[in-house]
Amino acid sequence: MDIFSQDALLxxxxxxxxxxxxxxxxxxxxxxxxxVTRRFGMTAQQLADMLNNNxxxxxxxxxxxxxxxxxxxxxxxxxxFGEIVRLRLKEGTYTWTDxxxxxxxxxxxxxxxxxxxxxxxxQIAKETRMEHFYERLLNAMDANAEGGVVxxxxxxxxxxxxxYVSAGIPRMFCGTEEEIFSRFxxxxxxxxxxxxxxxxVRIIEENLRAIGKFDFTCRVLNIHNExxxxxxxxxxxxxxxxxxxYAACTKVSEDRERQHLLQHVLDMFVxxxxxxxxxxxxxxxxxxxxxxxxxxxxxxxxxxxxYTQTLHNVVAKYGVEQDKKEILENLALPNILKKLATQxxxxxxxxxxxxxxxxxxxxxxxxxxxxxxxxxxxxxxxTESHVKELSQQQTLLEALKxxxxxNIAKSIFLSRMSHDIRTPLxxxxxxxxxxxxxxxLTGKMQDYLQKIDTSSHFLLALINDVLDMSRIESxxxxxxxxxxxxxxxxxxxxxxxxxxxxxxxxxxxxxxSPEVLKNYKGDVLKLQQVLVxxxxxxxxxxxxxxxxxLIVKEKASYNNFRIVTFLVxxxxxxxxxxxxxxxxxxxRREAGEENKSTGTGLGLAICKNIVSLMHGNIxxxxxKGKGSEFSIEVQLELPEQEETIDKPKICxxxxxxxxxxxxxxxxxxxxxxxxxQEIAKHLLEKVGLIVDVADNGKIACDKFAASAENYYSAVIxxxxxxxxxxxxxxxxxxxxxxxxxxxxxxxxxxADAFEEDISKSLSNGINxxxxxxxxxxxxxxxxxxxxxx
Length: 789
Known about the structure:
Blueprint: H1 6-12, E1 16-23, E2 26-32, H2 34-40, H3 44-52, H4 64-76, E3 80-88, E4 94-105, E5 111-119, H5 121-141, E6 147-155, E7 159-165, H6 168-172, H7 177-184, H8 194-210, E8 213-221, E9 227-239, E10 242-251, H9 256-270, E11 276-281, E12 286-292, E13 305-306, H10 307-318, H11 324-330, H12 333-340, E14 345-354, E15 357-369, E16 374-381, H13 383-436, H14 443-473, E17 482-485, H15 486-503, E18 507-512, E19 519-522, H16 524-540, E20 547-558, E21 561-570, H17 603-613, E22 617-623, E23 627-637, E24 666-670, H18 674-686, E25 690-694, H19 697-706, E26 712-717, H20 726-734, E27 746-750, H21 755-763, E28 768-771, H22 776-786
Parallel strand pairs: 18-20, 24-25, 24-26, 26-27, 27-28
Antiparallel strand pairs: 1-2, 1-5, 3-4, 4-5, 6-7, 6-10, 8-9, 9-10, 11-12, 11-16, 12-13, 14-15, 15-16, 17-19, 20-21, 21-23, 22-23
Helix pairs in contact: 13-14, 13-18, 14-17, 15-16, 16-17, 19-20
């Protein structure tokens, strides 16, 4: 016999194993190990039959539902499940078993369910014995007392509920244990006198947060509805992630010896946290060890000893060399008394050398009796938690570094992809616009070009939306707050929406309520982006002859802030109640015959994030076929009285070309791409400008330097160019010794579209940053800001 064979291993391993197949007909037998057969008396076929029909004969009634659910999920959804339950042995008794189930999916769609059976009987019995031991110990200590130990569990580590009372507690409250649990078990604070309740709740909640100790006296209701005065002292302890409250309760009228005895019961729990607990006498200048923790080395003598000499001996034996002087200074008795004169307790953290390693220690010192100068002196070891914390910090630092590197790589990738996509897109949009302006176009060619123009602008919108969402998710979407006039914002938005609505034969109106102030402070361009997006959707999803309305009103005010509400109403196609919860999700658009318009599915998600950054909220009410109402609430600040409003911002959305004519003024264009040169030159010449072209920043600087002063009315610079980029060219021009360079308009026209790109341009002496693909209307409007018509 091969004792190392797989069969021998499965027969002798103490963990039972079963393998089942699951398909549409249920569970089918594959294999059970000898352990399962010996303990539970079942073959693989019997196990499969039991799972398919009735598990009642195999599982204890208290656990039948959870086991049934585990096997149901294992077969239907797959996954990993585990639970400690009671299973029936072949002789008829039940045994505690750790039941583990894992589903494996095959390449052909079949499912194999692996079931592990681990015997937990000894562990459960050990835990039960320990519980009984502590219960007997506690009951023995207060067998004849009116008082004892109470243990509270907590819900969500905050709300206490009664979980254990020792024998003296029922006598103190004049009832049985069952009566106490029935009346006060789930509402502990109800038993406390109303006048004392708030203080008790505050003390308990503070110590639950800090995992601290407490000591207070309060009036508590007994079973006869009489209040008794009870002294409560205890501590909050944390076991893994669960916080429990341990409290010793005595009637105040009891003698102090009984209270001292009950305090020792509490010390059984508290002492586990300390290496040594000592009594330091400030008058006799001696130290006495009261108890040692279960894992603590005896660094202090057990008899009463001189404190200063003992401290020097301990530091000499255990102190880390570079810490010795500091320890002796901080723990010198005069220094301790000086600190305790202004505070009730102090903590000191240090290191010690023992067992060939560095150990981390916490010294806790507190008054016991100020008049007699009795001081509690305790030492706790936190080496394990310190090492764990350092490990966690290192893990977090490594994760943070990896995250930062990933974010940097992501930002570089998005920046380059944005630039590289916008550059050819500029040519597509630009030449399409030029072609559409031709007079001799057939109807079919004009239709083709219009479709190209629509598709290219859709692609541009998608790029912009994806970049916006990326910036928002990475926390790099920044608000730029400034004072603005509300009427200017509404005029800008209405200009855009009025034209869009008129094109579709719709009726657009705007109602600005009287309580709305003239000026506010906030990011006006981002707010405009939100309004144009929501109103644009209203136009898109409203049929010809429909109505769209914008209502602006002030909802509330506090301190120096105002809550302004923008309501967007339409009588368009509306949204179904099923889709409404997903209206602001990314890439979500409601499908339907009546909704055939194109879109990225990111607009409303971006709007919601922008509004959230403005400490506001956006909601929607809608009904299929009856229209929608969006409510946009944002927090805006009131400007200072002396703040002035800059000239109106250029609209970030589609603008409309006016009849500009710059009357033969000269302009210098630095652009390295021939196609972009051709488009920009055509657009500039179309409004009466004479254009000189430079293939890079160096040539542009040379041409500018060779020209007469004030010869050029403006310089347009691409940012990414060979030889010399646009930023360096801007700095070079600004530094020239000429009288016209200080006020010369320098305009960036680049495919770099991020906010930091714009900031970089402005910080290098550039007056305005235009983003490719070129928006003709914005180009002309920007030039008109700097060049007199």
